[in-house]
Known about the structure:
Blueprint: H1 2-6, H2 10-36, H3 52-168
Helix pairs in contact: 2-3
Amino acid sequence: MEEELKYAPVPFRNQMMSKIRAYRRDLSMFQREMRSTDLGLGRGNQGDTKYGIFATENEQSTNLQSQRVLLLQGTDSLNRASESIERSHRIAAETDQIGTDIIEELGEQREQLERTKSRLVNTSENLSKSRKILRSMSRRVTTNKLLLSIIIILELAILGGVVYFKFFRKK
């Protein structure tokens, strides 16, 4: 179980570690009870005839049954721990798959953002060129208006001079 704990995801590691500690405590408790339980086979019980031969057998069967119950409880506890570890492995695999999917999606989004950025740079360059063209067009329009105004003033001056020389000048 410790080997599986090394490869377990971090969020589940603490929970699994506490379960393993609990299982170890239960196991050591069962082992102590097993050692302290007398099966009636020792030397001290051979000369005891107070209850007879059936009492010894009855005591032995009771001890065996209690040991059997303890063993079954330990086995059940280990089975639950194994199932819990299997669930943890499945959850870790699912989490890993979800993480992989997210990374792929983020990669695609990054590519989209880079393409959008390059389009924005191109658009910015085009806008700069358009501004320059509009400024030059505006200068030309202003220059053309100024020249047209000067031409109109010159024509009016020439017309005024012609009218003056023709009608107002004395001969």
